[in-house]
């Protein structure tokens, strides 16, 4: 019943078709610091796509969003919405929904007035405003708080009001800057489901900023991974996880065991001291940096643990390791390892069925060469 | 018992100030009040005379009008000025602050005689108007001249509370309004202006109430035919020596002022004497 009312509220624009195409070409923003905040970014976000900008703090995600919204001026490059260059279009004419990282709720307006603001600015009728505000507040589970002022709300509640205000007018494109950052785990996953659902129903283009890789994986059609002002890699969550091009990507998404090969050519890293390093051509990243400096990456779930070298099947890659710690994760356990002669930190997943390991045990970890990835380091 | 001691020791530092206030404010004020209803006899005649003598009400009205004009001009000049102060760098802000504070640092006499020279017949202001084609504009000895000089003195009382309020408004709220579909003008009127209301009220009340009691400026620059309430008071105390009647007038002005402050407190926020403002509406939490 709850669902029915909310679905109705979002239906009209799902009929009006696709969201906005957002195209960034050579976009650069230089604040005059040591390096540009955003450095020559090119990215096309398809109509109706859910694109996540993922990256560590200070990597330029918010700046990129502000450039798209029109709050910052470009140092170089062009941004176009549906093919039209918006370089000289002021923010309020771009018709984008925007949720700010700091919420930016109006302190002198109640929750309902805040949410109604974009509708008022679009000269919506009184009844339409009342209906949409009620529906969207129900969606973010804030029914009954209409009359409260932002200072009377918790951080998470404020964030939900900001989300409601950004989606209430069903914009053709929605820019969300860490909209779930302040929420607890349950509310966060509940709202992730809602955001996905809204996205499906409204059909707008979503640009979603987060530094939470799990959230990015859950929600996105594609992820643009930011690092230090440039885009490290763009692709589906699956692509970024299984086919990382660079060590940064491999490390940012999920856990990985990394063997840095430095400048050595791949085939020179030959078997020695019981190790084996077989390379399958299909697993080498296309990134041009691979030839100069590379690393082998294996995910913990692809790594098997054996008691000795003899137990490793032929054709597998293997390296010695010492068990540093054991984490019990319920259905499986994770061994924290010191790998190889250099004692590199590593992880492997195992279960009680495959043998118990204790801290201090010497083991051999092995994996099939097709499970590893050779990336630019 | 120890809690009582703590209470007493906490209040103790206030004793000198309270004693001083009682001695120089409450006692004379009480005496003025009592005299105004008891001399020459226990009646309210001193008060009813104010309404019937044909002078007091006119002067009070003129004073209120002058104070309102000064307040309005000070707000119109002060708001953009204070806004500019929040937008420039620290150096320029310092310079702007000094400019607005100069009337504070100038002696009352020097300031007023400077205005006499500027505004008098044949003075620079008149010459300027002549250059512009308006012959023989007389400001000296008029309410207009008084208003101009008073506005100059009152400007800091408008600018300072406004500056503190405008500076504390989160400018990202304006961006949010733009992102939600407001033009820059709409964003100002719907977001910035309502958030600055506390500062506006503080400045308005401060300037208006202080303007009600101006004496030297109207006495030197105005005309005796267009005197303001402070001149009337001075006349009644120093020339007519009618202290109870003057006391009644003073009490009326005081009541007007208190009513105004109470009203401003209700609608605009808390106004303290130095014009620091705490808006009644809660600020956004970060
Ligand atoms: N207005 C500004 N003036 C100067 N430098 C800025 C400004 N805004 C951002 N920067 C710089 O640009 C870089 C990128 O900042 P940005 O806010 O885009 O990072 P972010 O990826 O959103 O980080 P976070 O996850 O912490 O929000 C930072 O180094 C920051 O110091
Ligand atoms: Mg950010």
Automatic annotation (TrEMBL), chain B:
It is a multi-pass membrane protein. Keywords: Cell membrane, Membrane, Transmembrane, Transmembrane helix, Transport. The chain crosses the membrane at residues 60-82, 94-118, 138-163, 199-222, 243-264. Pfam families: BPD_transp_1. The keyword Transmembrane applies. GO terms for biological process: transmembrane transport. GO terms for cellular component: plasma membrane. Residues 60-264 form the ABC transmembrane type-1 domain. It is found in: Cell membrane. The keyword Cell membrane applies. Its main location: membrane. SUPFAM superfamilies: MetI-like (SSF161098). Belongs to the binding-protein-dependent transport system permease family. CysTW subfamily. This is ABC transporter permease.
């Amino acid at each position: 019943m709850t669902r029915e009312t909310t679905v109705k509220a979002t239906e009209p624009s799902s009929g009006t078709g696709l969201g906005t195409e957002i195209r960034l070409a050579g976009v650069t923003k230089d604040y005059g610091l040591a390096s540009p905040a955003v450095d020559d970014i090119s990215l096309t976000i398809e109509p109706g796509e859910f694109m996540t900008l993922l990256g560590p703090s200070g990597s330029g995600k918010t700046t990129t969003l502000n450039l798209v919204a029109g709050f910052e001026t470009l140092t170089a490059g062009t941004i176009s919405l549906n093919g039209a260059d918006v370089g000289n279009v002021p923010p309020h004419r771009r018709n984008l929904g925007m949720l700010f990282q700091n919420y930016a709720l109006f302190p002198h307006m109640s929750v309902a007035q805040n949410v109604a603001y974009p509708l008022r600015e679009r000269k919506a009728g009184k009844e339409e405003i009342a209906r949409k505000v009620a529906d969207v507040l129900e969606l973010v589970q804030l029914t009954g708080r209409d009359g409260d002022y932002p200072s009377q709300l918790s951080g998470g509640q404020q964030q939900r009001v900001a989300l409601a205000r950004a989606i209430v007018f069903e914009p053709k494109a929605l820019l969300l800057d860490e909209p779930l950052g302040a929420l607890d785990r349950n509310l966060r996953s509940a709202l992730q489901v809602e955001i996905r659902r809204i996205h499906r129903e409204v059909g707008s283009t979503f640009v979603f900023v987060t530094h939470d890789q799990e959230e990015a994986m859950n929600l996105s059609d594609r992820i643009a991974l930011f690092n230090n002002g440039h885009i490290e890699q763009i692709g589906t969550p699956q692509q970024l996880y299984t086919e990382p091009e660079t060590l940064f990507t491999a490390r940012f998404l999920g856990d990985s065991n990394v063997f840095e090969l430095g400048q050595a050519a791949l085939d020179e890293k030959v078997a020695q001291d019981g190790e084996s390093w077989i390379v399958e051509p299909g697993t080498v990243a296309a990134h041009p940096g691979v030839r100069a400096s590379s690393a082998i990456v294996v995910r913990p779930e692809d790594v098997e643990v054996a008691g000795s070298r003899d137990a490793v099947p032929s054709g597998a890659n293997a390296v010695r390791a010492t068990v540093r710690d054991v984490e019990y994760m319920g259905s499986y356990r994770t061994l924290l390892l010191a790998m190889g002669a250099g004692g590199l930190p590593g992880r492997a997943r195992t279960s009680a069925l495959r043998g118990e390991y204790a801290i201090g045990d010497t083991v051999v970890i092995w994996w099939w060469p097709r499970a590893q990835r050779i990336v630019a380091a | 018992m120890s809690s009582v001691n703590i209470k007493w020791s906490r209040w103790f530092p206030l004793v000198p100030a309270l004693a001083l206030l009682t001695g120089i404010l409450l006692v004379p004020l009480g005496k003025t009040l009592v005299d105004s209803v008891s001399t020459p006899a226990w009646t309210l005649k001193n008060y009813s005379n104010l309404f019937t003598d044909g002078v007091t009400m006119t002067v009070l009205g003129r004073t209120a009008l002058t104070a309102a004009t000064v307040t309005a001009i000070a707000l119109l000049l002060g708001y953009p000025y204070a806004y500019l102060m929040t937008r420039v760098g620290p150096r320029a802000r310092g310079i702007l602050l000094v400019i607005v504070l100069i009337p504070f640092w100038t002696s009352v006499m020097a300031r007023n005689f400077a205005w006499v020279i500027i505004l008098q017949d044949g003075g620079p202001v008149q010459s300027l108007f002549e250059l512009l084609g308006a012959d023989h504009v007389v400001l000296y000895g008029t309410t207009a001249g008084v208003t101009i000089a008073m506005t100059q003195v009152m400007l800091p009382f408008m600018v300072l509370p406004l500056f503190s309020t405008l500076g504390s408004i989160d400018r990202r709220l304006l961006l949010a309004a733009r992102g939600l579909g407001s033009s820059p003008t709409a964003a100002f009127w719907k977001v910035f202006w309502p958030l600055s209301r506390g500062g506006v009220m503080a400045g308005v009340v401060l300037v208006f109430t202080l303007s009600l009691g101006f004496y030297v400026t109207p006495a030197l620059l105005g005309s005796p035919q267009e005197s303001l309430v402070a001149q009337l008071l001075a006349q009644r105390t120093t020339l007519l020596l009618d202290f109870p009647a003057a006391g009644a007038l003073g009490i009326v002005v005081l009541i007007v002022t208190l009513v105004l402050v109470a009203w401003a407190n209700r609608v605009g926020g808390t106004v303290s004497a130095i014009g620091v403002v705490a808006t009644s509406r809660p600020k956004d939490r970060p």
